[in-house]
Hints:
By secondary structure, this protein is mainly alpha-helical. The chain is built from 26 helices and 5 strands. The strands form 2 sheets. The protein has a 3-stranded antiparallel sheet with strand order 4-1-5, with helices on both faces. Strands 2-3 form a two-stranded antiparallel sheet. Strand 2 (240-241) and strand 3 (245-246) form a beta hairpin. The radius of gyration is 35 Å and the shape is elongated. Residues 1-25, 123-167 and 560-582 have low confidence and may be disordered.
Amino acid sequence: GSVEKGTDFNAVTGDDQTAGNEECTPTKRKSIFSRWAESMARHPWKHLLTALVISVALSAIGIIVGDFSIAADNAGWRSRGTTIANRHSQYFLLRRHWNDLFNDVDGSIWQELQGNPQTGWEEFNNDRVRRMSRVESPSELSLFEEGSGAYFKTFRGQIGDNEGFHRNLITAEELSACETDWYGSRSMISGGNLVSVWKINPNKDGLSTISALDSDVLLGICEAETNTLSILEKRGLCSGCPSDKCLPPYSLVFMVRQRIEGGFDLSCTELIAQWPTIQNEFIASLAECVEDVKVNYEPNKAGSLNFTSCPAGFWPSVVDDKFGLDNSVVRYTSSYFYTDKDDADAIYGIVDELDRASGDTVQGAYDTTNAYFLEIYIDELVNRDMALAMGSAFITMVAILVHTGSPWLTLMGLIQIILSFPLSYFFYFFVLKIEFFPFLNFIGVFVVFALGADDVFVAVDKWKNARLEMKNNTTEEVASRALPDAAYAMLLTTVTTAAAFFATTICPINALYCFAAFCGLLIVFDYIMNIFIVFPALCLYDKWLLEGRRNCCITFRKKYITREDESGDLEINSEDADESEEKKSLIHRILGGFYYYLHKFRWFSMATIIAVFVVCSIVTNQFGLPDTSDVALVPDDQHFKQNERWVNNLLSSSLQARAGSEAFILWGITPADTGNWKDPCESKKIVSFVSF
């Protein structure tokens, strides 16, 4: 229980800290950690190779047997386990089997839903579901098959009900054999078709004095539609007419062609030449129609867009919400193309070839009716951003190389960081039993590279400091002091950081739960790999220097380190020690200079910091709330983002907002989520309320 005078004793490791001092004698047996460190120093290759073989084998098992794959889609963001989530879980299952249940004569469907697990919470591997909008999945469409529901009461079949609409189309020779029923159908407005939204006077915000109904603007839209349709036809990416021809897009140009005799056979130039003959009458009729729609439209009444005041074939996507009797300027309009959602990827590949008009008076922005292009673009950005992880690895490598001055230690440091990823996945999959691996987990790569490099710095610095004080001691003696100290120092940061991530696993959102669990594992396994790979590598490094080996793979520094110069190699010999003691390292000089000026201007620095804090507090308190709950993942001037923004200015979007949302009451069902909360694809069953 006592230590002799003159002994520097480490209370954590239980070691004598005066090893190498012949005047001091240890009074306590070395700890198990020190003895283990000495064993590692005596047999470094055995420890290193054993660690590498085991870690590589487990990594291979985790990646291959664990069927490592990444869910790049936006799955896993629905909460689980809450009362509302449990209600939605049961509603989700009923919704998917809505029609089957209504036709369930003998009760077999109900028994199937109760007795056998059904499709899971989210089908993130289903490309078809992925391409569908919130209200477009096959199961949800069945709810509105007869026109019930606010959404499709707003968007379904309004054009085709206008008197004379199809008669006028059939008389057009070009469209006589085409699928004209597509116009105004549910397939047009929500079938994943290509749609372009046109902004008039695109470089000017607010109200524009130029209108889409002006001859030159209408000509630009017409020519852009024609060129785009030609590109789609050549690649077989549109349909609607025989002989691989395509239906003309639905737009203002379409309505103008319909009102001019033989309009569908005219070129854009010929069409615009006749436009002035009907321009005033058409604008007046359109304005009267829009005013009628704004006043009398009932979102919960099917066919409520069929106003007699509206031109034949009117659909509210052709004008913006500011157009009317008091404003005859159309600032935004749109064009719907008859395409197939299965061709969305092919169209996305050529979207840059599609004509967006000149951009001077009018500019178009393309996407599908379910914003598929924007989603794919965001996914591409995420994949592209993963290249930054490689940049992070390179920067980490350079930092380790500069700090250690040893390519050998740098290589071992990178190996321990890289291996921590598949090892974490092994534990993640086989021990925690989590099969869902969202793309968000890859952010952990940045975390592990940062903390991994920090652990390497700690281990190397502890070793060099120990060697400085024990110049004449063996590698085993240095290891017995440096390695336990380094392991303890790294343990503190590892535990606190990992605990913060693991604490986040209480979150009911699946993607965040998986991310927190995986990042916590990354930090833990990085610590383990540092001990089993970097520590033996340090022992080998020291042994090689003791033996006089100084090739470029071991170290590229030529001078010996001294007590003051901790940025160089280990000082094995003591020649020129007095001269080296007087020379301070670069880091020492930088930090010393920083302290000098900080101390000299300390009162000014403190006043500046307080002033900045006050100013920032005042400015941040003036920040307003976001206009919408949408997360802005791309800039507003991005092509697909423009489509998303501009479409909100159309009258159809304004009318859709009136429809509000729907609520469902399900009788005889108990709120429950019987699936695996760790996996959004896990199946579940209906839970009925027996007494009901």
